[in-house]
Design a protein that fits this description.
Layout lengths: L1 H24 L1 H27 L9 H11 L5 E6 L11 E4 L6 H8 L4 E6 L6 H9 L3 E3 L4 H18 L2 E4 L17 H9 L3 E6 L6 E2 L4 E2 L2 E7 L13 H30 L1
Parallel strand pairs: 1-9, 2-5, 2-6, 3-4, 3-5
Antiparallel strand pairs: 6-9, 7-8
């Protein structure tokens, strides 16, 4: 019996000693290991924020704790961020942030620039993601049922009233889903209808490509740097729903040009450092 236990102990020790070697030599193993760690930490952050927010639910100010925790968590993954145009988020008024969406790693960029009294638009499914969903609810997130147009329109109308009455800022991914392949997907119009209905400006935010350190298709998740650019606000005063398609196309082109430029910069910088 004791001999069997000795073999079991040695097997566990051998496994623990082998894992770091596999981690360094196998990119697929590293990819999944880092994402498992990432999601565990995100859930831990959600749990802490949830407990803290229970004492004052549905208040945007609760998000400061998530900002602090996530910004420190990013250091574990060897990712650095250069922020440009941060002053464009310092308006003491309500506005809508529209940002491109590449991966769940966008959380790092969001928390790096998160302004005061800001709430996220989130798909309804996230509400049921355990501590994360409850934390989002308690910081005032607006949940959208993408499968029910009437409910989505109703949520936009209610949020328009909230923005006007309480000077709340809203963070939205207008692509509606993650785009792992670079560039940008066509924009959905909800963010732009919201901005026009509330008569508040839009602030485009562009996250440069992650391709130098991350690729879902290639199972790559390394260390690196990306650029977050906060562009000047765009007024919607006097615009109506009829202006939304033109407004959406104009902002998407502006963001896509910025995305291509900053993504090229990060690639050239990495090549220069090597």
């Amino acid at each position: 019996m004791l001999i069997g236990l000795d073999w079991l102990q040695w097997a566990v020790i051998a496994c623990l000693l082998t894992l770091p070697i596999i981690y360094e030599l196998n990119n697929t193993f590293k990819y999944y290991a880092k994402f498992i760690l990432y999601y565990i930490l995100v859930m831990l952050v959600g749990t802490v924020v949830m407990v803290y927010s229970l004492f004052r639910p549905r208040r945007p100010e609760n998000s400061w704790l998530a900002n602090w925790l996530v910004n420190h968590m990013r250091c574990l993954f060897g990712l650095s961020i250069e922020v440009r145009g941060r002053e464009n988020l310092k308006y003491n008024e309500a506005y809508i942030i529209v940002c491109n969406h590449q991966s769940s790693l966008d959380l790092f960029a969001m928390m790096e620039i998160w302004p005061e009294r800001c709430v996220p638009f989130a798909k309804k499914e996230l509400l049921y993601c355990g501590p994360l969903g409850l934390a989002l609810y308690l910081v005032g997130a607006v949940f959208i049922d993408r499968g029910n147009r009437e409910r989505a329109v109703d949520a936009i109308q209610k949020t328009s009233d909230e923005i006007r009455n309480n000077k709340v800022k809203v963070f939205i991914f207008p692509e509606g889903t993650r785009n792992h392949e670079g560039a940008m997907l066509p924009f959905k119009k909800g963010a732009f209808h919201l901005s026009v209905n509330a008569q508040v400006p839009l602030v485009p935010v562009v996250i440069s490509s992650y391709t130098d350190f991350y690729s879902k298709r290639e199972k790559k998740f390394g260390t690196g740097k990306f650029i977050v650019t906060c562009l000047p606000k765009i007024s919607t005063k006097g615009l109506t729903d009829e202006d939304v398609p033109k407004l959406s196309d104009f902002i998407r082109k502006q963001m896509l040009d910025c995305f291509n430029q900053t993504s090229l910069e990060t690639t050239q910088s990495k090549l220069a450092n090597h």
